[in-house]
Amino acid sequence: MKKFYKYLRVSVFCFLFGLPLSLMAQRQITGTVTTGANSSPLANASVTVKGTSIGTTSDAGGRFSIEAREGQTLVISSVGYESTELPVRNVTGNVAVSLNQTTSTLTDVVVVGYGTQKKENLTGAIATVGAEKLESRPITNVAAGLQGLIPNLNINRVNGSPGQAATFNIRGAGSINSSSPLVLVDGVQMDPNIINPDDIETITVLKDAASAAIYGVRGAFGVILITTKSPKKNAPVRISYSGSFTSTRPTRMPDLMNSLEYITAHREADRNGALSGGATASEKYTAQDSTMAAAYLNDPQNNADVYVDPVYNPSKYRYVGNTDWIDVLYPGWAPMTQHTISASGGQGKTSFVASLGYFRQEGLLKVANEVYQRFNPTLKMSTEATSWLDLNFKVTLNSSTSDKPTGASHGGLSSGWIPTDLRPTMPVYHPDGHYSGQGNFTNMVALATLNGRTKQQINDLFLTGGLVLRPVKNVRVVADYTFNNTAQFDQQHYKEYKEYGVNGVLLGTFPWSTPSRLTEGTTSSLYNVLNAYAEYENTFAGVHYL
């Protein structure tokens, strides 16, 4: 036992005195990032501490400043340049870092228009993202994966509800009407929000008129080209699985007034309205409300959050509680899962790739029990019919379902209720167990729980058959035909529910879900597209590429 205490004393001593030593090793490192034989300053180079989230960027003069400890490593990188690592060991003075321009990427093949080109031959503004960038992110759809990856590609999502679609914009607004880019998946117009991100091979964004000219007026606001994974010839059969489980939660929520602050501000506004001849409250807060709200705020265990209304209606309660509706509606995190199983292979002249993706996301509004699900089965096959003819086939189904509460016929089920009807004085429940909410008070918990549900199902089927014809040397004729059928089913159910007052007395029916009703609608659309083009590619005298 004595040895144990001796060991404990030594350990505590080492911890207490070792911690300051490690902090003392933290140092400020300054330096300059340059490039080329003339050591030209390189602006916006990324400087990070390897293995941490600490980072900075170089300024217009290539200068940077960052904190790091002895033994750590700085990683300096920039788009189009080879990254370099700098160990932090006895570093003194200003550090000079030179980055060499990357030349190997100039031979990469990029999808442009109805064909491909090498980067070294491009003259337009084009950006490309590979599958490895998307696979490293926990994302719900393609839009979430592209955020922050491509300069001048603006992605906007209205809210964080499950399955919320995103909108795309390239280089800012270009019209008072819609300025969304044209999105093509394997040459066919498709909604990028409903495809499986795991099926994607590359994404190319054509930003300017020169690169998107082949699409004419349809590409006036840019073009996004998505290429899915293709079969590989003479490849062994390979089965793979990828899955992820992530959680989401609000990053920043408002800090609202407590009940006493709210009553005080409300009464002050009412007095100002009366003095100036402006609007005044129809049901005013009283001095008794302020007294009882203060008592409940200071001692909620021994004071009630409601009391019988002695002024306007003895059948109703006056609310003097202190409810943080943000905590009630958004109490924590929401789970999100994604699974993809795929098989690929090829033997002889025929090859294939097949995948099945499943995605499920639950909503942050816990009482709403919102669920969004998406299924993405895909099959691609190709075969070399003859030495001059290749045939290919693709079938894709994007199926999604959503289930959420039906909102009020006036105001919906949105955050609009929070600053208006969801006053901090109102509790979630009355003392008898019924939901609160009477007259001008709308209880979102009651609305989400007692009202009906809104359901939607979308099935988007694509069938594509194509061929590649090589009639003469260096010439390719490519053609494909796609049939698309989109079927959508919508169901909206409103249910009447009652409002109760003092001791469970019936006050009436909540006005914004009346009468009880069920509406259903089905829509179907057909889309046919034929793509055909010819390519000629040759290199003359070993140096002249056409």
Shape: globular
Largest sheet: 8 strands, antiparallel
| Count of all domains | 4
Q: Per DSSP, what share of the residues sits in E-state strands of 2 or more residues?
A: 35-45%
Order of strands across the biggest sheet? 18-21-22-23-24-25-26-29
Number of helices: 8
Helical content (DSSP H or I, runs of 4+): 10-25%
Catalogue the unreliable spans. 1-24
Q: What is the end-to-end distance?
A: 84 Å
Radius of gyration: 32 Å
The overall pLDDT, averaged over residues, is 83
Helix/strand/pairing category: mainly beta
Question: How many beta-strand runs?
Answer: 31
Task: Write up this protein.
- This protein has 546 residues and is mostly beta strands.
- The protein contains 8 helices and 31 strands.
- The chain has an 8-stranded antiparallel sheet with strand order 18-21-22-23-24-25-26-29.
What tags apply to this protein structure?
31 strands; Immunoglobulin-like; 4 domains; Ferric Hydroxamate Uptake Protein, Chain A, domain 1; disordered N terminus; 8-stranded antiparallel sheet; mainly beta
Topology:
Layout: H1 2-24, E1 27-35, E2 40-41, E3 46-49, E4 55-57, E5 63-68, E6 73-77, E7 84-87, E8 94-99, E9 109-112, E10 115-118, E11 126-130, H2 131-135, H3 142-146, E12 153-157, E13 166-170, E14 182-185, E15 188-189, E16 200-206, H4 209-212, E17 223-228, E18 238-248, H5 259-276, H6 287-298, E19 306-308, E20 317-319, H7 325-329, E21 334-347, E22 350-362, E23 371-386, E24 389-405, H8 444-450, E25 453-469, E26 475-494, E27 498-500, E28 506-509, E29 517-536, E30 539-540, E31 544-545
Parallel strand pairs: 1-8, 14-17
Antiparallel strand pairs: 1-2, 1-5, 3-4, 3-6, 6-7, 9-10, 11-16, 12-13, 14-15, 16-17, 18-21, 19-20, 21-22, 22-23, 23-24, 24-25, 25-26, 26-29, 27-28, 30-31
Helix pairs in contact: 5-6
